[in-house]
Specification:
The chain has 122 residues and is mainly α. Helix content is 85%, strand content 0%. The protein contains three helices and no strands. The N and C termini lie far apart (68 Å).
Length: 122
């Protein structure tokens, strides 16, 4: 049985599924940046890369899956539980947005440092 009403859980399911697209893409780029700039194979770099790999897979697979479950089955939740799930989804998005913003600022600082160093050498 599929109920076609749009409620809090369905709306946050759509939002979570849509947020997973740029979040997963930025996770993949983050892995590439770590692997490109690190030439050492220390345990810290390897563990950090493995953590980012699992995090990116979670963003790519688990977030859209949870969004789909909320969209299609969220009508079964009572209103208080819908509100609680919506708050959790909004907090996840806010938390990941701050991390994405920090990663972008670090990337811009690295790109600016590289451009400044090449300009000085020539």
């Amino acid at each position: 049985m599929l109920n076609a009403s749009l409620n809090w859980a369905s709306a946050t399911g759509i939002l979570l599924a849509l947020w997973s697209i740029p979040s997963a893409a930025l996770g993949v780029f983050q892995i590439f940046f770590i692997l490109q700039r690190r030439a050492d194979t220390s345990l810290q770099v390897i563990l950090n890369t493995i953590f980012l790999l699992f995090q990116s897979l979670g963003r790519l697979i688990v977030m859209p899956l949870c969004g789909g479950i909320l969209f299609f089955q969220g009508w079964r939740l009572d209103p208080i539980l819908q509100f609680g799930v919506s708050l959790l989804v909004f907090l996840v998005i806010i938390e990941s947005f701050s991390g994405i913003l920090v990663d972008y600022q670090k990337w811009r600082a690295r790109a600016g440092g590289v451009a400044a160093n090449t300009a000085v050498k020539h």
